[in-house]
Amino acid sequence: MTNLPVQTKTLDLIGNTPLVLLDGPSKAAGCEIWGKCEFANPGASVKDRAALWIIRDAEKRGELKPGGTVVEGTAGNTGIGIALVANALGYKSVIVMPDNQSKEKMDTLRALGAQLVTVPPTKFADPNHFVHTSRRIAEETENAVWANQFDNVANRRAHIEGTAPEIWEQLEGRVHGFTCAVGTGGTLAGVGLGLKERDENIRIALTDPHGAALYNYYENGELQAEGSSVAEGIGQGRITANLEGAPVDTQFRISDAEGLEWVARLLREEGLCLGLSSGINVAGAIALGRQLLADGVENPRVATILCDTGFRYLSTLYNAEWLRAKDLPVFDWLGSASEG
């Protein structure tokens, strides 16, 4: 009989996700590219980690009391993680998100019992931005806490204490680079800091989508955005508290088209159904691997984050009409299906 691991608490299912060698990206880079399967978390995304650490931190500080409510502004995945963790610990959740995010995320939040508030997408400086709206709701709600994922550094501690040591152990201490895109900054900064504690020579890279300002910031010292992206949950125009002090050694900018190419290839060739942020991360990991090789690193290993499941984007990334409307390439099998 096979002895399978047993978790004594449901929240123990968050983290300790598998790390998989990605064949196609490894061949493209000329070195090993590894993906951390964060879609294996209970909420099917990397954001479960931040949700758990943020709620546990609020409990430790005495801010979150029995029967309380957790309020957050999110593109969706953090809200899903918060709803699940809150349910497991006996709390309520109120989630504020822009109304241009995927229908699947909204439906999931409602199904989990969260109170969903949608607002029009707007710039961060606008007081009606989803982050500011969530803060006001928390202030106006009795026995509520504001998760504040962007500037609550419990977010990045989840990756310093969890994700980074997992990657280190899974690769047996032989890892040369790590990269991912930034939403809150918690994953990049946390994994970067955690890995640098173990080996300061590990190269940490930002992978930025178009429409975000951080590539220019790390390249030229100025927060300036160029172009646009349809990727949800990534792309940042400011230095959040989670991002402060992030040990970023290099940076890459990846287009939606390049990210989608890897989304398509990973599905067709390796059976992984992922969101666009994962495709962008993989493209960045390939660029980092090539850079390490060019700099003379022998047989480098690069890790990145496979952020969430593609099943969360059936109405967008996996919908031929939506892709055409965004002037993005349509996966060949979707085109055939719609025409047949």
UniProtKB/TrEMBL annotation:
Statement: the UniProt record of this protein carries the keyword Ribosomal protein: no
GO biological process: cysteine biosynthetic process from serine
Every Tryptophan synthase beta chain-like PALP domain range: 12-308
Pathways per UniProt: Amino-acid biosynthesis
InterPro entries linked: Cys_Synth/Cystath_Beta-Synth (IPR050214), P-phosphate_BS (IPR001216), TrpB-like_PALP (IPR001926), TrpB-like_PALP_sf (IPR036052)
Gene3D superfamilies: 3.40.50.1100
Keywords assigned by UniProt, alphabetized: Amino-acid biosynthesis, Pyridoxal phosphate, Transferase, Transit peptide
GO MF annotation terms: transferase activity, transferring alkyl or aryl (other than methyl) groups
Family matches, as PROSITE patterns: CYS_SYNTHASE
Cofactor(s) needed for function: pyridoxal 5'-phosphate
NCBIfam families xref list: PRK10717.1
The protein, known as: Cysteine synthase A
Record organism: Aurantiacibacter zhengii
Taxon lineage: Bacteria, Pseudomonadati, Pseudomonadota, Alphaproteobacteria, Sphingomonadales
